[in-house]
Amino acid sequence: MLKLLTVSFWRLLACISLLLGLIGVVLPGLPTVPFLLVSAWSAGKGWPRLELWLLEHPSFGPPLKRWREHGAVPRNAKYLATAMMSLSVLILLLSAAPFWLKLALPAFLCCVAIWLWRRPEA
User: What is the pTM of this model?
Assistant: First the structure.
């Protein structure tokens, strides 16, 4: 029974992540590849056929394989992520958000940007 629940959990996570990734293909601002990475990872734990389909997909497969083999992030994705984080910080600073959030979120996003730019590109 526990094994069935575990497999069901991984499959549900894979489906939800895949759905969010597919929505991200057409909805600007919602990232695609991070959700596909989570989907492939969770599918590998409970749905190997879906994982294989994702890895062999002509559009989704190459970035997933680059990440798995090298932890690589393409330069254009780095630029886009950095621009979106900067825009988010600007909107936050102009909002009525609490002061602590206006300090904490930019610091966190700065750490994310540093980590992202340290990733290989090939």
Answer: 0.78
